[in-house]
Amino acid sequence: MEAQRQVIAPAGPVSVVDVRAGALQVRLAETAGDIDAVQALRYRVFYEEMGAIPSPEMARHRRDFDGFDGICDHLLVVDHARGGGPQSVVGTYRLIRRPAAERHGGFYSAAEYDIAKVTAYPGEILELGRSCVDASARSRPTMQLLWRGLAAYVFHYDIALMFGCASLPGTDPDALAVPLAYLYHHHLAPVALRPRALAQRYVDMRRRGAVSLDPTRALADLPPLIKGYLRLGGFVGDGAVIDHQFNTTDVCVVVKTDLVTDKYYRHYERQARDIGASA
Q1: How, if at all, do strands 124-133 and 159-169 pair?
Q2: How many domains does one find in the chain?
Q3: Would you state the pLDDT for residue 144?
């Protein structure tokens, strides 16, 4: 049955994240209008730019939406130089914490991966998804601010582990043999934390031998989002998954948040020192 679009109010508190840099601000969605702008941005990026296949309902509304939008927090980047309307929302991340997933009946990633080892991890866990930035705003400041907002969210909720499906463009795993093999041979998650693609969707990532790879070149060719996760010490699960709707090949990424929170602590320590020096 086709999902019906609903007007969605924000799922959680809205004052957790507020980071600014010039005209840019990263915060959580505060209104149903914010979420509508996020869904419009996702439609432009995923469907119009990247060739995803919308349902008739999505195409009618020109919005990307599903049943998870109503239970998550939506992180967004606002460019105030573009005015105060929906066109000012230029970046987004969808954030689903354990309590919200439990109320909903599970995480989004569970449709592609066995994530039992991830969900068994003690403490708060966070699923990341639907990350995108408008083509006109794909600059270093925008991406840095989006990551700073995510770090603030992780810090606030004491997130111990982040995970989610990250995408490589296209649905031909042989054309993606080098990045898939590189991720498997160099960044496979430890057994205790390793998601595995569901049997009916499993695509073997070992499409090249480790010795045939140039790790430096393979890393450079990865999508920026996946490289960002790896810089934080991220791992990938066993098996890729073809997502024909989104025209992508997905891998499941797992990131312990130690490096995220350490960096955030250092940021606040520097701020405290600066304030003390100027007092």
Answers
A1: parallel
A2: 1
A3: 87
Q: Which residues of 186-202 are buried (b: 16+ CB within 10 A; e: fewer)?
A: ebebeeebbbbbeeeeb
CA distances from 28 to 75, 185, 227, 267 (A): 5, 36, 24, 20
Amino acid at residue number 48: E
Question: Rounded distance, CA 261 to CA 270, Å?
Answer: 14
- β-bridge mates for residue 129, sequence order: 94
| Residue 134 belongs to some domain of the structure | yes
Residue holding tokens 């929302």?
A: 89
95: phi then psi, degrees, rounded to nearest 5: -120, 120
Average pLDDT value for residue range 194-213:
97
| pTM of the predicted structure, to 2 decimals | 0.89
1 in a domain, yes or no? Answer: no
Widest Cα–Cα separation across the chain? 62
- Pure H helices in the chain: 32-42, 56-61, 98-104, 116-119, 140-157, 177-187, 215-220, 224-231, 258-278
Per-residue pLDDT, 277: 37
Q: Is residue 3 in some structural domain?
A: no
Cα–Cα distance measured from residue 218 to residue 222, given in angstroms and rounded to the nearest whole number: 7
List the domain range (segments joined by +) for residue 244: 18-278
- What mean pLDDT is reported for the chain? 90
Say which range, 115-129, 133-147, 239-253, has the weakest mean pLDDT.
133-147
Counting residues of the chain whose pLDDT is more than 70, the rounded percentage is: 91
Residue 95 lies in a domain: yes
pLDDT at residue 174 is higher than 90? yes
Predicted pLDDT of residue 140: 85
